[in-house]
Amino acid sequence: MKKISLIMVLFLLSASLFANGEGALVLAQGKPEIDAQLKAYAAAWGEKNNVEVIIKSCGGGNCDLGQMLKADMAAGEMPDIFAINGPEDFLEWQAIAADLSGESWVDQTKVAFVYEGKTFGFPVSIEGWGMAYNAEVLAKAGVDPKSLVNLSGYRAAFAKIDSMKGELGLDSVVSMAAGPEMFWVTSHHNLNSLLSNGLPYGDTSVVDNLLAKKVDAKRLSEYADWVELLFQYADKAILTTGTYDDQVGAFATGKAAFLHQGNWTDPNMAAANANFKMAFAPHGSMEAATDGIFVSAPSFYLVNTESENADIAKKFLVDLAMSSAGADYMVKEAKMIPAFANIDIRPDGQLSSSVQDWMSQGKVYSWNQYRLNSEFRDRTLAPIYNQFANGDIDKARFIRLMTEAFKNR
To answer: Residues with Cβ < 8 Å from 242, sequence gap 6 or more?
Structure first.
């Protein structure tokens, strides 16, 4: 009887520890829009592999993944797998990043995170963004998407659509967000227009100069015109205080002609039953015409080399990239563009399809925003955009503050 009781106690104790995450595989990632889909895949994979998988999603303006990871590290609770955005993030976590060079998925992708010749980061997907547009609204307004290649083209298009908002059923021309919780829309994605627009893929000359405290005044001035234009034609409530759902929802429900987001919003479009035709146009951040959108891997999974679960974590990533279940999750459920050549199925979302069209033509620009560290982007630059959106500063002051920020960083 005592033996049976002891067995039961040990069983209950192990069950309790398991339920609280002890011995479980923990993955921390920054894309809340795929939280449900990733949790469903992880649960099925965990059942098959006899391990509990805990997904911690932190991002989208409501949570800062970098800050969460720092808190986890301080508490001695670092995840087994965690996401980073790029070079600056990697340098912060380099000491605990496992070398994944020998993994089977490495030969199947061209966008893994590589540092000093070694592969450390598993590309979560391929993502892209330009200015998403409602093709049906533009057609009714007589605006040719092919004209949306520079500041002049967008000025004309925005003014015309704005004059027809009533008959087009619009609340605003652009769905744009620049509030404190939506800093990543401005100081990550919009900022990249300044850093990369019109440059050959892989060209880091603009951001390298900014890192060296050299500011191209003409390029920054034209970029400020672009920011001002977006803010001028945005819904002011969404611009200054709107959430991610507010911003994406305005476009998905046909209340805005343009959306400043990327193809990761395809699941939102499907959920809102947004059946109108949509695609991406280039950002118009310069007077010179540009003919491409911004495309890269948005983030990378690192394996915590100090974790007792490092081996099972590596297996999780192998199966994600190399199994049919992993492919189905990425493409059919999460609606992502896969980063692996062995996956031959493609998502059916219109914005992802548009990204693929731009990619197939080789009309893509780099993501260089993550060559700047998160503290500078999110704590220094983001508030400048927020002040501009709120009307606390004018364009001249915006240019001056941005210039000072780069020269004093």
So the answer is: 177, 179, 182, 235
Please report the pLDDT score of residue 351 as a whole number. Answer: 96
Q: Tell me, what amino acid is at 81?
A: I
The tokens for 221 are 């001035």
Q: Which residue bears the tokens 């990550």?
A: 188
Q: Which amino acid is at 243?
A: T
Query: What is the number of H-type helices and E-type strands within the chain?
Result: 20, 13
DSSP strands (E only) in 51-177 = 53-57, 81-84, 113-115, 118-123, 127-129, 131-134, 172-175
What's the pLDDT tens digit per position in 139-155?
999 999 999 999 999 99
Helix axes 217-232, 382-390, angle to 10 degrees: 50
The beta strand positions in 58-96, using DSSP E, are: 81-84
What domains can you pick out in the chain, each with its CATH number?
A: 12-126+297-351 (3.40.190.10), 131-291+373-408 (3.40.190.10)
List the structure tokens of 292. Answer: 């491409």
Give the sign of the dihedral formed by CA 299, CA 404, CA 193, CA 182: positive
Beta strands, E only, 225-281: 256-259, 278-281
In sequence order, the 6+-apart residues with CB closer than 8 A to the CB of 144 are 138
Interacting residues of 80 by C-beta distance below 8 A, sequence separation 6+: 25, 26, 27, 303, 304, 307, 309, 310, 312, 313
Quote the tokens at residue 348: 């059916």
Alpha-carbon gap, residue 69 to 282, rounded angstroms:
34
Are 330 and 338 in contact by the 8 Å Cβ rule? The answer is: yes
The neighbour count for residue 270, using CB atoms within 10 Å, is: 15
Residue type, 105: W
Closest to 184 measured CA to CA, from 257, 127, 123, 108:
127
- Of 213-222, 343-352, 379-388, the poorest mean pLDDT is in 343-352
